[in-house]
Amino acid sequence: MVAGFGMIKKLSSSLEKLVLTDAVLLNLYKSTGELAHLGELFARYKALVYGVCLKYLKDRDDAKDAVMQVFEKLIQSLHQHEIENFKSWLYVTTRNHCLMQLRAKKGKFTEEFSPDLMENQLLLHPEHEPELETNLTKLEQCIETLITEQQQCVRLFYLDERCYKEVADTTGFTLNQVKSYIQNGKRNLKLCMERND
């Protein structure tokens, strides 16, 4: 009986050391809503998120605030998306968040940071970051070519991850207009991206 207890204690200790994959933690969070699972998953990439925020916002305090805002945004948005690669998805979500913040506070003074001050290990950044950066820059340029209504709807729907109804409520357009602007905007973006390849 004592030997059995020792074996159970040893097995329990081994299970505590088991590292859960990103996908497992993500599924646990989605199914239980336990913030502990999301916290553990986010902690793995907190340095990446901070690095991206610092790169774009160029202010340590703003970057720290943005890290918390991204985490808070994940609480809701993870339930709305099917995510295959959490690290890459988190990178894009963080970048979009920073770009939206920059747009909101155009004209404010920012402090320049040397790239040497930021974490720059390859392990902290997605493998295809330069290609991703180029594509996202092209996408931003193409969004600017859309008519105002399409720009507004596409940004709210894809970048802010709002549903059709929220886009309609925010813009004052009807649901059918929102769907049309998004569909036409998406088609125009695709054509623009293909022209710029």
Description of the molecule:
The protein has two domains: 16-105, RNA polymerase sigma factor, region 2, helix turn helix motif (Rna Polymerase Sigma Factor, Chain: A); 127-197, Winged helix-like DNA-binding domain superfamily/Winged helix DNA-binding domain (Arc Repressor Mutant, subunit A, Orthogonal Bundle). It contains ten helices and no strands. The chain has helices at 2-17, 22-32, 35-44, 46-57, 60-77, 86-104, 129-145, 148-159, 164-171, 175-195. Helix 9 crosses helix 10 (175-195). The protein is globular, with a radius of gyration of 21 Å. The termini are far apart.
CATH architecture name of the largest domain: Orthogonal Bundle
Helix content: over 70%
Class of secondary structure makeup? mainly alpha
Q: Roughly how many Å is the radius of gyration?
A: 21 Å
Low-pLDDT runs? 12-17, 114-123
Overall number of structural domains: 2
- CATH topology name of the largest domain: Rna Polymerase Sigma Factor, Chain: A
- What's the average pLDDT? 79
- Please work out how many helical segments DSSP would assign: 10
**N- and C-termini, Cα separation:** 70 Å
Q: Give helix and strand order, one letter per element, not per position.
A: HHHHHHHHHH
- Report the portion of residues in β strands: under 5%
The CATH homologous superfamily of the largest domain corresponds to: RNA polymerase sigma factor, region 2, helix turn helix motif
Query: Major β-sheet, in short?
Result: none
At the first level of CATH, the class of the largest domain is Mainly Alpha
What is the strand tally?
0
Envelope shape: globular
